[in-house]
């Protein structure tokens, strides 16, 4: 059965106002979206889970209906925002789910605030630093770095739509056309959030997370990847899995970097099975 309608509110958390949505009843699951998109990337998965779980989604700072504070943004601010979301929406511990850059935010939060979590699920955090440290993956690292540099240059030149497409086609999707993965509204969201991604690309803390961050953690961790994902994501996830004592890996057949968009049923099923076991 479909879940209940999401109820949204704008909440002040320090210097930022965040657009936060909640639905459902039961143990709380907080979703963190990735770069370029907004909370709506989780719509299908959240709807599938909300009959049995209380789901929380939000627009990260600089995305969607949340505010855009002045100054250079940092991932540590996103982590602090996430703590505010959890505090304002539920009594801890909660289950945390992150996608892509949102998985990096969730990973850092899990390392810093494990007592506030019941579990953490990460889909393909871009731990590209692991590529730079591995000679066999040097070409992947160069290709990803060059593509992001081209995307940034296009946005800086006022060509946000072209920059978004370059990032989508050459970093996040590679062998998939973004028109086949994202509808027109989601593609427009990417273009609208291009300036935030450009700011994020300048963050000295960005993508500097270690795959060994959860090496001493006792949290249940689910690491998901897609069989059709770009190859640059796999090495970091593999290192993260090897270094995390209570990690479970799931491969989503036919899915790529955005299973919540292309394979929501499969992603929700894998997530639901993990969450029920982690209660």
Helix and strand run = EEEHEHEHEHHHHHHEHEHH
CATH class of the domain at 7-128 and 206-278 equals Alpha Beta
CATH fold description of the domain at 7-128 and 206-278 = Rossmann fold
For the termini, the CA-CA separation is 22 Å
Share of β-strand residues: 15-25%
Radius of gyration from the alpha-carbon trace, in angstroms: 17 Å
**Secondary-structure arrangement, i.e. CATH architecture of the domain at 7-128 and 206-278:** 3-Layer(aba) Sandwich
* Beta-strand segment tally: 8
Uncertain runs are none
Q: What strand order characterises the main sheet?
A: 1-2-4-3-5-6-7-8
Give the fraction of residues assigned to helices. Answer: 40-55%
Q: Based on helices, strands and strand pairing, what is the structural class? A: alpha/beta
Net shape: globular
CATH superfamily of the domain at 7-128 and 206-278: Alpha/Beta hydrolase fold, catalytic domain
Tally of helical segments: 12
Mean pLDDT: 94
List keywords for this structure.
12 helices, 43% helix, Rossmann fold, eight-stranded mixed β-sheet, alpha/beta, 279 residues
Q: In words, what does this structure look like?
A:
With 279 residues, this protein is of the alpha/beta class. The chain has a domain at 7-128 and 206-278: Rossmann fold. 43% of the residues lie in helices and 18% in strands. It is built from twelve helices and eight strands. It has an eight-stranded mixed sheet, with helices on both faces. Helix 1 (43-49) crosses helix 12 and helix 5 (138-156) packs across helix 9 (194-201). The radius of gyration is 17 Å and the shape is globular. The relative contact order is 0.15. The model has no long low-confidence stretch (mean pLDDT 94).
